[in-house]
């Protein structure tokens, strides 16, 4: 018979074991098409998608409902060990035709961010509300990707700032209403088309209680900006299983603060200032890569603070810096990414101060 002392030891050991098994971060995979005939840059073939899903199952990953997991992280509740979430953008019918059977067979929950204009006009290339209801019965969740998939920070010709914001508000609110009308509920999540947002748009999300995703890579944690969350692309050039394995093993960069100078890049090279939390990290092994340029220069301004700078300005479009650092076990990488927009005058982007 165990004494109170031995019960205490046993309970303590169980608590430690549970703590080890708990996870306080979440990688989220982003897909678009599941098809051999759609653009390769945003597609996985059914064979590739099967390979990905089989790996998740065989390697012991726990595929979780995205919104529930985000709520738990925000509340500092532990997720299952090896938790991961699956998401799709754009409501393509190939998700239903080729992706859904694979997910259903494995009993994996998933989220699809839908742009409703092609759904409402009954485009044959996009999901129907009836298909969505069928998918909901087997773990599917449908969320907001705006009506027409616009560049949310671009104004139309002659449009005022107030008119632009009103149009973007309609893009968001209309889809929320359609989700409730056709499916009876909304998870209050949104994926920004092209990953683009600014402070004004993110404030709109916060006021509506909507959690939103950009297109910077990384894992979600309680420290994340829940109006600009990261995901890992898993299509096109990122569909290789070896690449996917590295991302699934990623951890959030242990940052106390970050300063990126805003959402827009200029005609000067971008830089980002990262301040690390106290702890024993392999800071000497931190590497930051600039899209299309190679390694960023690193200037350590203190023991736990670094400035990463690109070697030259970004061209017009979206550019990013990705930073990785091995953890002490060398089995995982801490991961961080930031995206900037370099706009051209004729694109009509809103003021960089918005």
Automatic annotation (TrEMBL):
GO BP: any one term: carbohydrate metabolic process
Enzyme Commission no: 3.-.-.-
Top-rank taxon, per record: Bacteria
InterPro entries on file: Glyco_hydro/deAcase_b/a-brl, NODB_dom, Polysacch_Deacetylase
SUPFAM superfamilies linked to this entry: Glycoside hydrolase/deacetylase
A single GO molecular function term of this UniProt record: hydrolase activity, acting on carbon-nitrogen (but not peptide) bonds
Protein's cellular compartments: Secreted
Main location: secreted
Signal peptide coordinates: 1-22
GO cellular component, one term: extracellular region
Domain NodB homology: 82-284
Keywords, sorted A to Z: Hydrolase, Signal
Stated name of the protein: Polysaccharide deacetylase family protein
Species, as recorded: Marinomonas primoryensis
